[in-house]
Every structure is written in structure tokens, then in C-alpha cells.
Amino acid sequence: MSLPFIYTHSSGLKHDTGPGHPECPERLQTLLDLFDELGLETITAPEAETEWIARCHPMRYIEAVMEAMPDRGLAQIDADTIASPGTWIAALHAAGAVCQAVEDVLAGKTGRAFCAVRPPGHHAEPSRSMGFCLFNNVFIGALHAQTLGAQKIAIVDFDVHHGNGSDVMARAHENVFYISTHQWPLYPGTGGPGDQVPERVLNIPLPTGTNSAAFRAAYEEKAFPALEAFGPDLLMISAGFDAHKDDPLAQMDLVEDDFEWVTRGLCRIVPRAVSVLEGGYNLPALKSGVAAHLRGLAE
Ligand SMILES: [Zn+2]
Q: How far, in Å, is the centroid of ligand 1 from the Cα of 156?
């Protein structure tokens, strides 16, 4: 059994969101500790080139984000998105990690990759930062994969929140299919029942209190068949661990085994996979959830 390649950068520890913020540097430190405990070496992420980010976000937006970065202290980007002097470089490494992972998987260096990055990305719309997200890391990776010859990309998002940014982008880009399970209603409010476009967007909203059995049924009955029918060249995963029962930001009732189960099921359908960290705000649940996810990604 071989575990996935891990892509990360210590700059993610310097993206400071201020006291009491759930999307905190300790999230990444917890995962770096996990990789140490598992004896897993990590690959140092490069910075994303501006042109890679610009496939998803207009240049004027990228420049506005850069200009909003503080020289010292903290800057409020939106209601709950905070930037510090270390944020810009962390954001470049977050997107860069995903692009490097995509390159390595498509080149056959590994079949599976996990990107331990922050800030997260799936709420970032083309011209709007929100929900702790500045650049849409997973979608930047999907479009990077297309430039390298992969034609059809599926993004499966099991973060407890709907990835509104990825949803919007999937409607605008051909051959990227966004499939999301999420608690609904919940922040950001999008992705409700019936909100779907064939082979572009499949939203599977789940009620408060959704447990392991109902979560797995949603995948077996809806997500897995849709993924199989689409037949992507590459699977990308928006891996959030905030649907865990102990997470403070949501009310779903998953346990760590569910993350291994869903990951294994997805990779059985699409063997080449790049997974990208999104949410997960209870540190022990994040750690055990990522450990389970890595087991599911193992080949
Ligand atoms: Zn989330």
C-alpha cells in the first residue's frame, strides 16, 4: 500500500486570521504533525504563477486581493475572511501546491495526491473573496489539468458547506463537473434542492443531523453514478472535514470512517486523484479525518 504524495508549504502557518478565528494556523500545524507521525515526507509547494490563477479569476480581482493585503496587522477582506502580512504568499503556495500535484499525477509520478493548504478555496468566486477563501485552489488546479491535456475533470466536494465558488466556475467552464454534498440550509445558502446543470453541477443538499448511513446513501445513489457516467480523466476532491460530528461550524453527524469510505469509493471510479484541503475546524476531528482520507487515497 502506498500513501498519496503530500503537497504543502510552511507559509500556510503564517496566514494569520486573528484570535479566535476557526480557520487558524493550528489547523495546518496539526496536519504537519500527523504527516510526521505517519512518517510521510512532504513536497514543498511552489508559488502559483499569476497566469494559472488568472484562468479562474480576472486580473483586476487578483490585483485587488494583492492590494488589500496589510503590511502589518490584519485586514478584513469580507465578513469572515481575514488577511495578514503572510497571507499573500500562503495563497500563492496553496494554489501552487494544487497545480504541482496535478502535474505530478498527470505525469504518472503518483496516482494520488493530497494538498494540505490554507487559505481554503471553494467559496472564492471569480471576482469575490468570501468564507475564508481568496483564490479557488481546486478549480485553478482543474483548469491547470486541462492545459496539460486532461479533458474532463470532476470536482467532488464533501466539505459540509456548499462550494459556491466552484459551482459558479463549473457553470462557466466546459468539461469540469462539480458534485457537492453539503448541509443545507447552511452558509453560504446556495446549492439547494434541484439546483443542478447536467454534467456541470450536481448539488446534493443534506439535512441537519445527516448521519453516516444517509451520507453514504447519497453517494451510492447520486454522486457515484453521476461521476461514473461523466467518466473524467482526473478526479479532484474538495476535502473538508467539517461534516464531522464534532465540528463547531455545522451540524452533520459523520465519523472519520466516512471520510475513508467516500474517498475509497471515489478513487475506485476515477483512479487518478488530487485532493485539496478545504474546511474542518475541530482540530482532533480534522487530524483523524485527514488520516482516514489518506487511507482512502492509498493505492
Ligand atoms: Zn466548510
A: 13
- pTM for this structure? 0.98
Select which of 123, 162, 182, 244 is catalytic.
Answer: 123
Phi then psi for residue 115, to 5 deg, are: -110, 110
293 is catalytic: no
Residue 108 CA to ligand 1 centre (angstroms): 30
Homologous superfamily of domain range 5-297: Histone deacetylase domain (3.40.800.20)
Residue-wise pLDDT tens digits, 78-90: 999 999 999 999 9
Q: Which strands form 201-206's sheet, in the order they lie side by side?
A: 42-44, 5-8, 112-116, 273-277, 234-239, 153-157, 176-183, 201-206
Q: Determine the distance separating the centroid of ligand 1 and the alpha carbon of 78, expressed in angstroms.
A: 16
* pLDDT at 76 (0 to 100): 97
Q: What is the pLDDT of the chain when averaged over all its residues? A: 98
Residue 59 pLDDT > 90, yes or no? yes
